[in-house]
């Protein structure tokens, strides 16, 4: 009798985990395969405010969502101005999702001051108790400043080691210097 | 006689009743669990079918429409946008500098990484009025924060963060190398590695694989450039009156440690050993 109980309880636990994983998988695909234009976003904000107060189909209250949206947009706007890095395109695809491991394929394009870049990489996130660790693999960088040998050498080095952080830190310094030089030359024209 | 007999019968009836109740409770519990299992199985199967459909149907502009509704709700659209923006902020985290605006200023987050492996991140919470100043931070005490901010904070915040990022990343990478050595090559180390908090002074006794039980080499690595994760000085000496071959090896290692990350250097020792076999 007791044994059957245990068998059922084990199955219940494993089913609950499976359901949790499938729900997240469903949300991932839903997120990654849809796209709404800015116009549609604005319309959603307006119509959301029109609906009667309170919870709407399980989402937060209209004012909460709107506030969260504005706060995130303000942060991003500040960061882009401050760092000079503008992301023009960002897409990701969840390739693997298990209980404590997620692998996503990222595509990221943008500019740093006047230099443009296109990246592709895989991001592995592992949950170990309360710590989440992130590892970049399969980094692929495309940059247009082919004329500068230093740049192409540096790009292939950081690519080889999956060193995304160093790529951006160095790109930032180089782009700032490059911009400064460009402006200086223009000034003397 | 009769009385004890009656007592016994009463006890037996009581016991039988108790056992019956227990049995019924168990059966009830089992039935409930069975019902729950079937409930969850159905839920799981429905979800699985939804996910399978998603993966087949794919990339309509609006994705897969939920059955029962024709248009996604406004709430769903906003949640989508929020998740997207959060994804972009995560991308900034990967670049090494991220930020969050606060009521009285801005809180910067500096991330560190060794090649593709992200390590700890540190925050610098700034107030901007009446002038730029530090409100809170999580920078370790052995990083010269005051020196850096005194020089750059009020005139060039970007430069300040850049220099701070260089220091923090170099420290994180030195620490990472020492940790990796401790973790993956402990059999080649005598005891534990000696290091200071800044991880810019490392001292250890070691051997190369396949050399018996003594640790003939002593290494002393000094990293004078705090923004660098390779040592400026690497002194490798032999601990006893050692043969010339060992002295030569020590000199070669000294050169190696100055150009190659510590754990990678030790990796190359293992590879060399394998080649000799």
Brief write-up:
Chain A: Keywords: Coiled coil. The complex is a heterodimer of chains A (189) and B (277). Chain A is an alpha+beta fold and 189 residues long.
Walk me through the structure:
The complex is a heterodimer of chains A (189) and B (277). Chain A is an alpha+beta fold and 189 residues long. Chain A starts with a helix and ends with a helix. Chain A has helices spanning 2-33, 38-50, 62-83, 149-160, 164-188; strands at residues 85-98, 101-112, 115-128, 131-143. In chain A, strands 1-2-3-4 form a 4-stranded antiparallel beta sheet. Chain B has helices at 2-57, 74-95, 145-152, 157-184, 244-259, 262-276; strands spanning 97-101, 105-114, 117-127, 133-137, 194-195, 201-206, 217-222, 233-238. In chain B, strand 1 (97-101) and strand 2 form a beta hairpin. Chains A and B meet through helix 1, helix 2, helix 3, strand 1 and strand 4 of A and helix 1, helix 2, strand 1, strand 2 and helix 4 of B.
